[in-house]
Amino acid sequence: MDIQTISKNCIEACLQCVADCERCITECIATGNKDCITLCRDCADICALCARFEARGSAFSKELHTLCAAICKACHTECAKHAAHQDSCRICADSCKHCASCCEDMIKSKN
């Protein structure tokens, strides 16, 4: 896969993750799931920033992708705990896992 395709896929995965995290936050507020809310907020914010940095070709995007992948993995782990009984957590966990993988692909392409 060429670098432009990897970049496009990563930006799309980051933006989808933002949306899925925000939906998860909304549902978790109703259930009082504070651990999930905290991680999803961090994840949504870093994913949005990561997409913007990648879109502009920032010299710091590799470092940001590394942090984004780490936060997405942590959010995936937390949301996966609730996936069986909360659909938004299942969707968020899947989205976070995919975004982390795309960020890792982006990191590899920048080496």
Overview of the structural elements:
With 111 residues, this protein is mostly helical. The chain has a single domain (3-109), classed as Substrate Binding Domain Of Dnak, Chain:A, Domain 2 (Up-down Bundle), CATH 1.20.1270. It has helices spanning 3-31, 34-56, 61-80, 87-109. Helix 1 (3-31) runs antiparallel to helix 2, helix 1 (3-31) packs antiparallel against helix 4 (87-109) and helix 2 packs parallel to helix 4. The mean pLDDT is 95.
Entry summary:
With 111 residues, the chain is mostly helical.
Question: Which structural traits does this protein have?
Answer:
mainly alpha; Substrate Binding Domain Of Dnak, Chain:A, Domain 2; 111 residues
Topology:
Blueprint: H1 3-31, H2 34-56, H3 61-80, H4 87-109
Helix pairs in contact: 1-2, 1-4, 2-3, 2-4, 3-4
Question: What is the CATH C level class, in words?
Answer: Mainly Alpha
| CATH architecture verdict | Up-down Bundle
CATH topology: Substrate Binding Domain Of Dnak, Chain:A, Domain 2
- How many distinct beta strands? 0
Please tell me how large the radius of gyration is: 13 Å
- Termini distance? 15 Å
The proportion of residues forming helix, as a percent range, comes to: over 70%
What structural category characterises the helix and strand content?
Answer: mainly alpha
Q: Which of globular, elongated, flat, extended, rod-shaped describes the shape? A: elongated
Unreliable residue runs: none
Number of helices: 4
Q: What order do the helices and strands follow?
A: HHHH
Estimate nothing, just give the exact number of structural domains: 1
The pLDDT mean sits at: 95
Specify the biggest β-sheet: none
Beta fraction of the residues? under 5%
